[in-house]
Amino acid sequence: MAKWVYSFGAGLNEGRAEMRNLLGGKGANLAEMAAIGLPVPPGFTITTEVCTAYYDNGRRYPEGLEDQVEAALKRVEQAVGAVFGDAKNPLLVSVRSGARVSMPGMMDTVLNLGLNDATVEGIAARGGARFAWDSYRRFIQMYGGVVLGVDHHRFEEIIEHVKLDKGVTEDTELDAADWHRVVHGYKEMVQDATGRPFPQAPHEQLWGAIGAVFGSWMNQRAITYRRLHDIPEGWGTAVNVQAMVFGNMGDDCATGVCFTRDPSTGENVFYGEYLINAQGEDVVAGIRTPQPILKAKAKPGERSMEEALPAAFADLLRVREVLERHYRDMQDIEFTVQSGKLYMLQTRNGKRTAAASLKIAVDMAREGLIDEEEAIKRVNPGALDQLLHPTLDPKGKRTLLSRGLPASPGAASGAVVFSADEAEARAAKGEAVILVRIETSPEDIHGMHAAKGILTTRGGMTSHAAVVARGMGRPCVAGAGGITVDYAAQALSAGGHIVRAGDTITLDGATGEVFLGAVPMIEPKLSGDFATLMGWADKVRRMKVRTNAETPTDAETARRFGAEGIGLCRTEHMFFDPGRIGVVRQMILAETEAGRRDALTRLLPFQRQDFIEIFRIMAGLPVTIRLLDPPLHEFLPHKEEEMEEVAEGLGTDLATVKRRAADLSEANPMLGHRGCRLGISFPEIYAMQARAIFEAAIAVKQETGEAPLPEIMIPLVAMTRELEITRAEVKRVAEEVFGETGQHVPYSVGTMIELPRAALIADAIAAHADFFSFGTNDLTQTVFGLSRDDAGKFLPLYVEKGILPKDPFVSIDPDGVGALVAIAAEKGRAAKPELKLGICGEHGGDPASIAFCEKVGLDYVSCSPYRVPVARLAAAQAALAAGGVDRTA
Ligand code: PEP
Ligand code: MG
């Protein structure tokens, strides 16, 4: 016969913490606490397998369950010395759900189960009439709500009615007779609402509650939650049935919740709240103000548990010690004190802020509770992002204006501006500005750079604003649809407020909130625990971490964060600078090669200077520079007066400029005449860029004595010949420059693998490449037939509907993009074992994708500067998951 029920407490502990899959988190930990000698009221857990069997068998319980529940209940009766349903000496129980991971949306708790018109008298004899009738009405209310589905307002109305009748306002002013009246009213109302009397038989009550827990596994809220958090339906939930202990039987009783360390700072101090003479839900309901556990934390007028219940407090301190030593992690615990005696009702690893998670991991490693590798595993790399940006002071005053998507973390305050030019102009005068746009485009880059934060009213998490802001480390709130922007009036409105250009607002890019005025901030600390953990991570990781950067500021930031070179320098971003865009446009619109060469000659010094600055910052480290990639129309003017300006500069007319612009425009801007195809149509463009790179490298070598390591990267290769031709051109220029200067610098030439065809013929391509860098942005677009903007349009719906498990622009899709990366890595290495492999798409900063890169054996990942620490930690975790690094090899 299968075992469906596991007992705990009072000397029989059939479960352990490791059995959470079978017993759920709550049940497994109750058994564990009881087994290590902590005071846990006896009870039993109905396993998650019962839930699965129940649904597999058309909602019927498996054979043997009923007998096992009966037997386990008998044992609890004996342990407690009370009998379920006995009028004189009744056992009351709590019924709680408990999945493997805590899951909101499911039935949670029913307390005081076993009360009825007869047993209430037995409880009254033990704890007094008022306590008994109050407990009975609480039971009807909870059971009526969660098991019978009666609207909770209907219960509130009855209490209000009794209070009104008596002329009082507080629950505490109601006596036993009043609660008796409330119970009577409840029962009538339940009969009216459900068409049946409130169940009096304790066994019927018990099976009703068990059924409600299993039933809630399949309610809509739980289903949605599971889908959003990747929780398989097959896991099921367990049900915990446990003897009641009462925190509301008098002033020597209490109930409370604590964390063994401070969950917001991580400080090693006991942190918690409790209420005297109360039951669990009173703490949550917020009717009475909970009091602190520690005397040191009590404000005037408050009474700590340390003072009010010293003996139970001393026991609780001991429990804290035992739990931390046993679980080796910060615990979130629930307890009840009944008649001065402490009982433990729950323990689990406590949720914590990113800052606390870091501090607790490092502290525990220093305290010897865990080792360094365990500390590395404890911190969620994604959460580190929060620590690298200023954050809003939680104590600061704030007025919410609106809410959008948390597109790029960090907080920023500044004066509202509505155009990129205005942002730049005001920032140049030293003013902090927030750039507010309906949407942003590549032409806004200079304004985004100049701004402290970016707010858009349209677009998703991967809209232009979001991607660029994350790359730059600028806080960004995107798609704040509740805000209306009126460019003409230079004002925005939301929720009845009007904010004009120049007025101050504050963005919280981590929550998506927008506030009126300036909210005080806290600056991040990169030293201390952060540096310690990063140092430990660096010791265990195998993959290098580089950055995607094209400005000196980004390169410097990334170095500070520990980048080991540049994995992608997108040269086109350098073209958008307001001082150069005019020349870039002339280059593009020139009708002759001579015209183009003339403009390119003027661009050369700019490019060379860009590279010199970056090489200096990245001294001795590899710098991958990608030659021009986007289709040319992205650089073209859109407004008539801008076109006119270009026409004038070129000595031609407006009509000619318009015609050229139309010629160059691509229907699908992600495909077509871009990347190496431009380099083949207009070889002089790549030649100029290559020259700028070599001249800059030589200049820096002469200046510093250390030659930089340029890696020249050809984008969008699909055919071997494309790489062969462009590589030959780069080599020709290199020799030309080396000949002219009499100087030589080492360099390599490689390509991006960002088209499916390139991945499939990677062996042939490898013959002409020194390195591959996986451009998973374009690879995702071409594999799925999606554009990056689609991620803000309908992909969230696809994820919600389960058509896609995850947004493929965030995490590498293993079936398409991942499979191609694996094929290309294998073929490339087979053809050329020394081929260097990296990734430079946005995925390079995503922990799940970094784990994938470790498995495929890439040499490095490259990500935006602010993701560098995230990537260092994620790479370390990936190396540990792969079995650690063999440092003897
Ligand atoms: C890529 O395609 O992954 C890539 C890094 O290039 P871009 O995002 O500039 O197209
Ligand atoms: Mg690309």
Summarize the structure.
With about 900 residues, the chain is α/β, with parallel strands linked by helices. Helix content is about 45%, strand content about 15%.
How many angstroms does the end-to-end distance come to?
Answer: 53 Å
Please state the overall shape, judged from the principal axes of the Cα atoms: elongated
Overall mean confidence score, pLDDT: 93
What is the β-strand count? 33
Walk across the major sheet and give the strand order.
Answer: 14-24-23-16-17-18-19-15
Low-confidence stretches: none
Largest sheet descriptor? 8 strands, mixed
Bound small molecules, by name, code or SMILES, are: phosphoenolpyruvate, magnesium ion
Q: Helix count, per DSSP?
A: 36
Counting helices, strands and paired strands, the structural category is alpha/beta
Strand content: 15-25%
Helix content: 40-55%
What integer value in Å does the Rg equal?
A: 33 Å
What does this structure look like?
Helix content is 46%, strand content 17%. It is built from 36 helices and 33 strands. It has an eight-stranded mixed β-sheet. Strands 26-27-28-29-30-31-32-33 form an eight-stranded parallel barrel, surrounded by five helices. The protein has a five-stranded antiparallel β-sheet with strand order 1-2-7-5-6, sandwiched between helices.
